[in-house]
């Protein structure tokens, strides 16, 4: 296996490892921290740009493997009586198929990784939005309960003030009655005093 196909095999192994890490049932906090680092780190961004260039070369090698396999199939259809040539042709076909599968699976897994990572990122964003909505709902519920408590308190205060007003009205009525009684008693006292003075004058 040549150096570039060895490199492609290494990339395929790395992709399989990354895919396993993505699909592992990790806690949401760890997964969120991992994807946040991957989406904000400049090193990861540079690595992704480099990988895109590498995948371009892998795609070229994939096309080359397809063309080579087609040429080998055409040669295989021709009748050859040389046994060593047939063995060499089969070996070349085997290597071409190996290169085709290796590059094809690497490209296919790269597409799956990109789609899976985008879905996971979207899911994490929805989870954050859901958590924010739950927090807002809890805070709004607490605010509503606090408002209801304040409303009940104000109602109780208003009821107490109404009772005090009624008591004050009763006291005011009692005071007015007392004033009337005092006025009547004063008038009666004045009348009695006048009678008493008139009796004194008659006796004198």
Task: Summarize it.
This protein is mainly α and 204 residues long. 94% of the residues lie in helices and 0% in strands.
What does this structure look like?
This protein is an all-alpha fold. Helix content is 94%, strand content 0%. The chain contains 4 helices and no strands. α1 runs parallel beside α4 and α3 packs antiparallel against α4. The mean pLDDT is 80.
Task: Please give the count of helices.
Answer: 4
Structural class: mainly alpha
The overall average pLDDT, rounded, is 80
Number of strands: 0
How large, in whole angstroms, is the Cα Rg? 50 Å
State the helical fraction. over 70%
Beta fraction: under 5%
Distance between the termini: 158 Å
Order of helices and strands: HHHH
Keywords:
204 residues, 94% helix, endoplasmic reticulum, BAP29/BAP31_N, membrane, transmembrane helix
